[in-house]
Amino acid sequence: MQIIKDKQIIDDNWSYIADDADLKAGNISVSLARWHQDKAQLLSREGKLGVRIGPADVVDDLAPDLKTIQLIELDFTDFADGRSFSQAWLLRGRHHYSGEIRATGHYMTDQVFYLSRVGVNAFNPEKVEDLPIVLANLNDFTVKYQHSIN
Amino acid sequence: MITSHDYSPERPIKRSSMYQYNDNDQILVDERVAQFRRQTEQFLKGEISEDQYRALRLRNGLYVQIHAPMLRIAGPYGLFNSKQLRKLAHIARTYDKNYCHFTTRQNVQFNWPKLEEVPDILEELASVQMHAIQTSGNCMRNTTSDHLAGVCIDEIEDPRPYCEIIRQWTTLHPEFDYLPRKFKIAVSGALHDRAATQFHDVGLHLVKNDAGETGFKVIVGGGLGRTPVIGQVIKPYLEKKHLLSYLEAILRIYNLFGRRDNKYKARIKILVKESGLDKFFTLVEQEWQLIRDGNELSNERINAMKAHFVEPAYQADAVLDAGFSEQQQENKAFATWVKHNTASHKIPGYHAVFLSLKAPDSPPGDMTDTQLDAVADLADQYSFGEIRSTHRQNLILADVKQAELFALWQQLDGLKLATPNIGTVTDMICCPGLDFCSLANAGSIGVAKEINEALDDMDYIHDIGDLKINMSGCMNGCAHQSVGHIGILGVDKKGTEWYQITLGGSSENKAAIGERLGPAVAKNQVTKAVTTILDVYVKNRLNDESFLDMVNRVGITPFKEQVYANN
Q: Which end of chain B has the lower number of beta carbons within 10 A, N or C?
């Protein structure tokens, strides 16, 4: 599986572990609920850690742990739910999170320019054939009217 | 099809002050056109789903309506220049059925474009510094303002530079383009609120503090539609430098906490109501404290924007003209028009002139391509090439010398744009209704026409005076019926059209939501009900008492008794 990170197509070396599945080796991400529940176990294993948050999750809850998290996945259940945009802004602008923020789930390739501006730097598209489209759409605009993260 | 023909050769006229695009502004709208062209092509090829394209086209002003798509074009705080008006005329001729419609939010709508031609229309618009960005969809919409901004006699400060600052800030804002619901901002700089600021998601009033400095009173959570709510003051005085950081704080709280489970409860007014103003204020305040520093609007930026809105070259001797008063004495029709269709101007000898888009035989707010072209010429000739649209769906030439009013009136009369009914009962706000809109439950244009035909006696209309009728074809309330002095709302009852009547609404300083008169009336009874209400007013008013004042004094009972007397 390939994704886009920092405007490059790269191989994805992360796995998302569902709440009812066993943890495995390597770089894994888990839900926010599981993160809170199994934090000690997660921190004691090898490999990098990521957390997948939904639009209703509260970003501030993650603030104390951000130094130990290398990936935050913003999981779009519906492209129209714009809370993920503010979550990204809060992670970068308020909590100064410098790890990877990745859009995943049901977002539109036409939203990636805005997502990149609020601090999302990686994109897991719904379909692999969307990879070049995402890359191109990241350059939809060369001008901007307001401050954000980028 | 786009040709290289320039429809509007620049004439050597003294232009009014309007914001002029710089290179970046132009690049932005050009890139937006390219983006939407791609999206439309992908949709037509089946590469984007219906659902996704809907979200994208709405953010470019494109609705799908009963007969055809409807395209809404932004009129930034109601300002247009003559070149832009000619472009609208050209679009009406080339891509539509020779007319367009001015809306209550100072925008322009075309009712018959072809979907596949919309990118071409947007490209035409971009060539004259216009666009349709964020004129629909759940995002920050066109910023509206006082149609007499910069020329009225009761102004604290010209709101237009702040409108433009807000326009830019809201345009393609990356964080706030997928809000729970639409978000509308209005700005007023005068004592008299002509921008309905208390019925916007955010209303801003330029006010003076005790030290004599100008800042903003911030009102939040107002709105019309299904659940009309009068906005509440969240910040009595906000320093100008904090304008954008405070808006950002409000928008972030709304984006994160506004309801997304039910579209009818998704506006910020519901969030403010359900959480309570105190709690909402606290959330906004906490957010704002974290972002306000380092995010300030500099004086330099404000002054640079103000430089775009400097006064046009007024003539100091305009007031010395004696002909104006003679012409009024000699010509009663002219005098009547001056009385009703012009407004006082801050510069002696100048007037702001209303062009009534409420001629008896024309749908409210509609204009033909011929009228658009002619008005563009009149604007060049008499008013520094500038045209404004008003929240009551009329146009304004804001800077006309009194010596030229008579000639202008004669030409407007020939164009059917001089009906002397501004602010009167036939100056109705009316949505397109069931004739055009896929949301509507009932017709509105036909009913407006019938009321207009019944009220054909201008002396009677002028005797009634200030009376605002607002009529919407459905609960969404595009024509602001809940704040009409008389509000008329079309509803569907088992497949037939019925109309609920309210009295006593107002969107001005003493904001009020109209009270329901009684059961809805049948379509063929609406005009009778309106004329009955007017008769009750004429018989029972005290001296110079306005309709609204009388309703506030006596309540709805006397009106109710007569309207339902025979039922």
A: N
Residue ending a domain, choose from B240, B272, B306: B306
My answer on whether B186 and B105 are in the same domain is no
- Give residue ranges of B with CB < 8 Å to any A CB: 24, 27-28, 31-32, 35, 39, 48, 52, 55-56, 138, 168-169, 171-180, 244, 252, 255-256, 260, 290-291, 295
* B7 assigned to some structural domain: no
| ipTM (interface pTM) | 0.98
Contact of B431 with B105, CB cutoff 8 Å: no
Q: Do A80 and B178 touch (CB under 8 A)?
A: yes
- Looking up tokens 């005098």, which residue turns up? B335
Strands A27-31 and B214-220: unpaired
The stretch B137-142 carries a mean pLDDT of 97
How many domains does the structure of chain A reveal? 1
Chain B residues whose CB is inside 8 A of the A79 CB are 52, 55, 178
- Which of A89, A111, A143 is the closest to B27 by Cβ? A143
Is B311 inside a domain boundary? no
pLDDT tens digit string along B439-476?
788 888 888 889 989 998 999 999 999 999 999 988 88
Q: Which chain A residues touch B if contact means CB-CB below 8 Å?
A: 79-83, 85-86, 89, 93-94, 108, 110-111, 113-115, 117-118, 140-148
Question: Given the structure tokens 């008499």, which residue do they identify?
Answer: B382
- What is the domain range of residue B40? 23-126
Q: Based on the domain organization, do B149 and B286 belong to the same domain? A: yes
Q: What CA–CA distance (Å, rounded) separates B151 from B399?
A: 8
Contact: B169, A117; criterion CB under 8 Å: no
Distance of CA A117 to the CA centre of its chain: 14
Q: B157 and B106 in one domain? A: no
Q: Are A125 and A2 spatial neighbours (Cβ–Cβ below 8 Å)? A: no
- Do the chains contact at B256 and A144, CB–CB below 8 Å? no
pLDDT tens digits, one per residue of B249-299: 999 999 999 999 999 999 999 999 999 999 999 999 999 999 999 889 999
Burial (Cβ within 10 Å: 0-12, 13-18, ≥19) of residue B166: buried
Instruction: Give the domain CATH number at A129.
Output: 3.20.20.70
Query: pTM for the complete prediction?
Result: 0.95
Do B165 and B300 belong to one domain?
A: yes
The single-letter DSSP state of residue B229 is B
Report pLDDT digits (tens) over B306-325: 999 989 999 999 999 999 99
